[in-house]
Amino acid sequence: MENLAEAFLKLTDEDLVTLKGIEIGMRRYEWVPTTEISRISGLDPSKAEYRLDLLNGMGLVARETLHYLGYQIDFPAYDLLALDELVRRDAVICIGPKLGVGKESVVYEALGPEDLPLAVKFHREGRTSFKRVRRLREHLKGLPRFSWLYASALAARHEFQVMDKLYPQVSVPRPVAHSRHALVMERACGIELSRANIQNPEEAMGAVLDEVAKAYSLKVIHADLSEFNIFVSEGGVEIIDWPQAVSTDHPNAAELVERDVANVLRFFERKYKIKADLAQALSRIRREPLKEAA
Length: 294
Known about the structure:
By secondary structure, the protein is α+β, with helices and mostly antiparallel strands.
C-alpha cells in the first residue's frame, strides 16, 4: 500500500464492516463464503457482493472460486482495520509517511492528541523463517496452527505488554495503544546508533549496558539487540523493537542475553576501537560479583 492515509480515507463504513466480516469469518474458513460475510457484517447479500467487488478492485480482498465463491484479507486490509480502531479510540489523530521497513514490520509516522509525535508499527510476521519465528517467540508457544495475521496480532500485543512493563524504568518509547497487529508508541528520540557519530562512545556503550541491566532486573531480555534498534540523542539512549523479548526464565535466556551484549560490544569495538570484556559486561548486566582470577 503506497499511501495508507489515502486508502483509509477512501473506505466507507460499509467497506469496513465488510472487511471485519471477512476477518471474523477467517477464524472458521480459509476462504469466507459471501453468505457468511453478509451474515456477520449485517449487510444484505446484494450490498455485500457490491462492496466485495469494490474491495477486490482496490486490492484489499482476495477472491477464490473453489466449490463456492470465497474471500480473504491480507496485511493491507488488516492495516486499515487496525488504523480504524486506533482512530476511533483517539489514539491516533493522523498518520503520515513510512519511517522505515524492518524485517517483520512497517513503521509509520503519526500524531496523537495535542500533536504528540507517534510511531505506528504494523507487525508483519512471516517475513523471516516460519520455524525461526515459532522457536524464538514466547507468545506463539502451544499454537499448533495459526495465520500470519493472528501471529502478527500476538506479536504486537506481546511487544506492547513488554514495553508497558519496562516503561519508564527502562529507556524505551512510551507505549500508547495497540490494535490487532498495530502498536502505537511515542516516537523514539535521536538517530540509530548505527548511523551516529558519538563524541563519547565509552559513555554511550555504558548507557546501553545500563538499560540492558535495568530490563534484566525486570526479568526481560531483548533477544534481538543491535546497533539498529538503539537510538542515541543528547538525552541518552533509547531501545526499540521488543517483539522477540523473552523472560529471564526462558530456557535460552543465558544464550540470548550473551548474544545481545556481544552485539553491543562488537559494534563499539568495530566502529570506535573500544575493547570490553564480555564476561565482565555480563556480570554487570546480571549484577553478579566478578569471579577472582585463578
